[in-house]
Amino acid sequence: MSSSAQTLALPRKNYLNEGYGVKSWLLTTDHKRIALLYLVVVTFFFFVGGFFAVLIRINLLTPAGTFVSAETYNRLFTMHGITMVFFFLIPSIPAVLGNFLIPMMIGARDLAFPRLNLLSWYIYVAGGLFTLYSQLAGGVDTGWTFYTPLSSVYANGHVVAAALGIFITGFSSILTGLNFIVTIHTMRAPGMTWFRLPLFVWTHYATSVIFILGTPVIAIAIALVAMERIFHIGFFNPAWGGDPILFQHLFWFYSHPAVYIMILPAMGVVSEIVPTFARKRLFGYHFVAAASFGIAVIGFLVWGHHMFVSSESVYSAMSFSFLSYLVAIPSAVKVFNWMATLYKGSVSYQTPMLYAMGFIGLFVIGGLTGLFLACLGMDVHVHDTYFVIAHFHYIMVGGAVMGYMGGLHYWWPKISGRLYSESLAKFAALVLFVGFNLTFFPQFVLGYMGMPRRYHSYPPEFQVLNVMSTAGASILGIGYLLPMAYFIWSMRYGPIAGPNPWPATGLEWQTSSPPPPENFEVTPVVTWEPYDFSGRPDLMAELAAQARAERPVSEGQ
Amino acid sequence: MSESESILRGHFRDLPQQRATATLGMWIFMATEIMFFGGLFLTYTVNRAAYPGIFAEASHHLNVVLGTVNTAVLICSSMTMAMAVYCSHKGRQKALSIYLILTMILGLGFLGIKAAEWTEHFQHHLVPGFNFQFSPAAAAGPAQLYFSLYFAMTGMHALHMIIGLGILTFLLIESFRARYTPEYNTPVELSGIYWHFVDIIWIYLFPLLYLIDIHK
Q: Are A341 and A275 in contact (CB under 8 A)?
């Protein structure tokens, strides 16, 4: 047991006990409290979206799919997509972990615009309530992609309410992105130069660029759909002189970069976890930082790969296909650099590292299948099949959600001051990994064999794989419920973590857990390179002490 | 000076950092506004390319005189706003308040003329969704597209102007309290950036909407 463990106690004054009562939370401008406000609502929407997924998978147990009607099934997959994309995946890591960590990682007291930060949370809640209302009132059946003229003319459902909810929530994203960019530019502590920033900050900067430039475009796209629906104007309806493909361009111009909004923060999390649990500097720091921007920039140029079968010209399609292959390069750069970081490192397999490694493997599968889809001829065969669904769930669930879970586990000690049960957490990670693959791998096969997406029924020969997928989903659900339980339990009964339990480099680990309201008692002055394990004898001594005790500190005092 | 201490917000090191932060924030916000209006401009471009003749015909139904007057009004309001920013830099409190008031009068004038134009359009049945009529009937569909874009774009612009007037009201009240000095005039300067942006949007809207084939 290391000597520091014997004197561990929760810090007297921290951001959690600074003020009690509803007002101190709902009117806070402390980025750490706002991050927790987001955590609560994001978790709520995760389970709402998960609930819709459960109903979908139950319906797909039988080929006839009579658990719900076809009409209801359409509403289920639409609401699943809308909730998960706009109210869970896009906010999750930036609004929870980004808000909490970015000021600490750069040595600042708060974000640039704390009141805008709180406003962004209220806007997110307002948009979520609108969409929740539309769901409770019966939902929408257009798919989360709102293709016209179904959404703008013919759909029977609460399209305008759902669209309004998404429109409002978009402003939350824009404000968050604005806050992050300005903060990273102007609020860095003395000595925190650009190339001393953690990769988590770099990826969130790139994500914020996408927030800023992309979100307004979908706002306009949705506003035009609502206008067409209310005033019967023919922007997108051919019968009224409009062009449905115009909607697809406007929609996908944002929605493709949106998927990079979902994955870049998770990559940032992985870039933080891997060096810590390999006890080694991140390999190729500059390349990984540049790759984040490469992904963001090229990501704006590939939207047409969603429209290969929408009568896009062959020359456009070829360009988009080529650019989609190109965007795989910076992604691969990151993967190879993570692998190189592990090489000759001193690797341990605590829960955050399990999630990070799971991310790398599943992201590679998801990413490679993306290349299959970027290939024009192949896409014609698998477009609108379960192959596409499997591809994006590998990236979004196997990638982004695992990154989110890994990040929550990695920084939980900092956020709460407590440690969770490591053995239970490892078990949950394993359950999640098994459940995930059982759910989604069969869907690659189903899609290739021809099962279309968004259909409530299917030919009988597809049943075995569908049953496997549903079984996997139930296991996956357990994998998500367990962390909820042990995180909550740890807040009261978990061992006290201390400032740097792993231990890790990074400014956020040089203040107490939980941090004081102003983050640092004294503004830090940075003179070291990021992930500099070799230059930190105190960390190496802590690691040696943990090794002598023959168990990591996270297994209790 | 205690005045400076109350200006400096708690999470900033010093006033220059606060000023740099606020300024960068406003410019980034401008980037989002460009993307927002850009979506509308894209829709306009696509539809005008599809129906050039009908767009021109529909454009001739707009009141070019009023549109030109409005353009002049807005350009003048940008000048008075720039003067207001200059006065805030120089610490000329009274002149600052006067220029803010002038900018607001011009802004209200713009909105008044716009309201008059819209009323005229309504009376001529040119508002989509409200008994829209256009001759020849074959052109009614694309003409409705044109007017939808006209109302969407000028409406979005007018909304931004109303918000701008709200911001100017706030600035005016603060200027009466002599809040803006050579040391602290960031709100005036950033509001100036916003106001000029709204002006520039109109500079693009005017020829695109009012002046299609105007010489024909």
A: yes
DSSP A95-142: IIIIHHHHHHHHT-SS-S-HHHHHHHHHHHHHHHHHHHHHHHTT---S
pLDDT tens-place string over residues A429-449: 999 999 999 999 999 999 999
Domain membership flag for residue A5 = no
Give yes or no for residue A189 having a pLDDT over 70.
yes
d(CA A350, CA A502): 9
pLDDT at A552: 55
Give the C-alpha separation, A147 to A164, whole Å.
Answer: 16
Percentage of residues of chain B with pLDDT beyond 90: 83
User: In this structure, is residue A7 part of a structural domain?
Assistant: no
Q: Is the peptide bond before A514 cis (omega within 30 degrees of 0)?
A: yes
Residue pair A428/A482 in contact (Cβ under 8 Å)? The answer is yes
How many other C-beta atoms can be found within 10 angstroms of the C-beta atom of residue A377?
Answer: 8
Asked if A212's CB is within 8 angstroms of B31's CB, the reply is yes
Write the DSSP symbol of residue A461. Answer: G
Q: Give the model's pLDDT for residue A551.
A: 54
CATH 1.20.120.80 for domain B62-216:
yes
Residue A59 pLDDT > 60, yes or no? Answer: yes
Q: What is the 8-class DSSP label of residue B77?
A: H
Measured between CA atoms, the residue of chain A closest to residue B32 is A212
- The mean pLDDT of A456-463, rounded to a whole number, is 96
Contact call for A234 and B20, based on CB within 8 A: no
CB A217 within 8 A of CB A253: yes
Distance CA A244, CA A221 (A): 11
- The whole domain housing A551 covers 29-555
Q: How confident is the model at residue A2 (pLDDT cuts 50, 70, 90)?
A: very low
Site from B8, B9, B11 to mutate, A interface, most A CB atoms within 10 angstroms: B11
* Phi/psi of residue A305, nearest 5 degrees: -75, -5
Characterize B153-180 residue by residue with b for buried, 16 or more Cβ atoms within 10 angstroms of its Cβ, and e for exposed.
Answer: bbebbbebbeebbeebeebbebbeeebb
Average pLDDT over residues A392-410: 97
Q: Is the pLDDT of residue A290 over 60?
A: yes
**Both structure tokens of A122:** 């209220």
Helix (H, G, I), strand (E, B) or coil at A287: helix
**ω into residue B136 within 30 of 0, thus cis?**
yes
What's the structural domain count of chain A?
A: 1
Average model confidence (pLDDT) across chain A: 94
Q: What pTM was estimated for this model as a whole?
A: 0.94
What's the confidence (pLDDT) of residue A12?
A: 85
Question: CA B195 to CA B173: how far, in whole Å?
Answer: 18
Partner-chain residue, chosen from B25, B29, B40, that has the shortest CB–CB distance to A220: B40
Q: CB of A36 within 8 Å of any CB in chain B?
A: no
Which backbone phi and psi does A251 adopt, to 5 degrees? -65, -50
CA distance A142 to A9: 53
Identify the CATH number of the domain in which residue A424 sits: 1.20.210.10
Query: What would the DSSP string read from start to end of A56-90?
Result: HHHHTTSTT--SS-HHHHHHHHHHHHHIIIIIIIH
How confident is the model over A50-67, as a mean pLDDT? 96
Label residue A5 by pLDDT band (50, 70, 90). very low
Option in B25, B129, B152 nearest A112 (CB) = B25
| Interface residues of chain B, partner chain A, Cβ below 8 Å | 10-11, 13, 17, 20-21, 24-25, 28-29, 31-33, 35-36, 38-40, 42-43, 46-47, 50-51, 128-129, 141-142, 144-145, 148, 152
- The interface predicted TM-score of the complex, written ipTM, equals 0.91
